[in-house]
Amino acid sequence: MASALIVIDMQLDFCPGGRLAVAGGDEIVAPINDLMADYDTVVLTQDWHPQDHASFASNHPGAAPFSVAQMPYGPQVLWPDHCVIATEGAGFHPALAVDVADLVIRKGFRPQIDSYSAFYENDRTTPTGLAGYLRERGASDLTFVGLAHDFCVAWSAIDAARLGFRARVIETATRAIDLDGSLDRARADMAAAGVTQE
Ligand code: VGL
Ligand code: ZN
Asked: Full-prediction pTM beyond 0.90?
């Protein structure tokens, strides 16, 4: 039974000074680097959006950042532009030990649909391919860290549990956006899905 550390979106735009900065996002780089040696497989995800991405408020005339739009696949928070393909902000934090990773998986690159989870786009049905990769590698025990706790980390961990993996989140190695109670909701949703939170 192999283990995998799934490091979610440790990119400059989610760190202080970035375009969708998460408070304290840079504080978890060192703890994440320290965790990597304890796992058989290390996977990094990278939020990777075209400039015309439907999750950007700037692509919805009159819409404010952090408002909610109805998309064909359900409600979608409209974010400030972030992690635009090939920009500096889409790059990993420079202190992250990227060389240790076995796989870097990009998500959110289709203009019309967001992808919080590392496993499925936000329609909850279009797979990224990560589940197949992990199963072929024999990894059944997954630990999630990175950014942001209440969005991409939570959605990834919940999908993992639903897919039949053991899923765990290490709270000291994640930080939240916490939009309108989203962190409390994410914690409850993870508990209901059987995700271990420690
Ligand atoms: C994320 C909002 C938009 C995340 C990504 O990594 O949690 N949040 N895109
Ligand atoms: Zn995004």
From this structure: yes
Assigned architecture for domain 2-48+81-197: 3-Layer(aba) Sandwich (3.40)
User: Three-class SS of residue 192?
Assistant: helix
Which ligand ends up closest to the CA of 148?
1
The candidate with the shortest Cα–Cα distance to 157, out of 126, 187, 129, 127, is: 187
CA nearest ligand 1 atom 8, residue: 151
146 CA closest ligand 1 atom index: 6
Pocket of ligand 1 (CB under 6 A): 9, 14, 47, 79, 116, 147-148, 151-152
Written as tens digits, the pLDDT of the chain (198 aa) is 799 999 999 999 999 999 999 999 999 999 999 999 999 999 999 999 999 999 999 999 999 999 999 999 999 999 999 999 999 999 999 999 999 999 999 999 999 999 999 999 999 999 999 999 999 999 999 999 999 999 999 999 999 999 999 999 999 999 999 999 999 999 999 999 999 999
Which ligand sits closest to the CA of 8?
A: 1
Q: Give CA–CA dist 195/166, Å, rounded.
A: 7
**83 is an active site residue:** no
Nearest to 20 by CA among 163, 183, 179: 179
